[in-house]
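ok so dumb question maybe but i'm new to this and my supervisor (M.) told me to 'just get the structure for Small ribosomal subunit protein uS3' and walked off. so i did the thing. is this what she meant?? sequence i used:
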Amino acid sequence: GGNYAEKIAEDYEIRKYLNNRLAKASLSRIVIERTLKLITVTIYAARPGFIIGKGGTEVDKLKEELKKVTSKEVQINIYEVKRPELDANIVADSIARQIEGRVSYRRAIKMAVANTMRVGAEGIKIQISGRVGGAEMARNEMFKEGRTPLHTFRADIDYALAVAHTKVGTLGIKVWICKGERYGKQDLTPAALSAANAQAAGQNRGGRGDRRPRRDGDRRPRRGDNQK
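this is what came out, is it supposed to look like this??
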């Protein structure tokens, strides 16, 4: 409708507020849905207990705070991210927070790479950019393990960017995690079989398969050759 821009701005304010307020909850993503009178905010986090609090006190507080931000009724749903090591947002944010806490960037990144590969990722790539290690000149540094193919749609790649604010400036942390392929062998097999069956059926209909030349010099009679 006409107030689309207002909703975009409101969504931005909600996300900004939650990311600041729940920085210690290891947020993965925030989904905002709307009806006429209600805003439903779904939060995916590695530490949902931090958001809920004892007996749900924290989540009730959060609802009231979001009401003030939006001037509407707010419903909050919270889901736990079971394997945070495979979530690029959580990994990137964790590295950024460690660097801000003066942990060596190499140590933080190498630990993240090891943890992600340990839980079964096919590969991980992390790039850090800026005045890395307090250097005079900005540069990029890359850390890789396993495979992270970015040239195919089949690869299930999770990507995120986080920013670490340090005394010498800001550092950008990009994370790519390859969880495997979106269509594994088991998923492809039925499709492959049906495609093969369709091709066979096409070849058996009135010689439609004759378009492809045979390697044996056409010694075998084609279907329909004797029906002239």
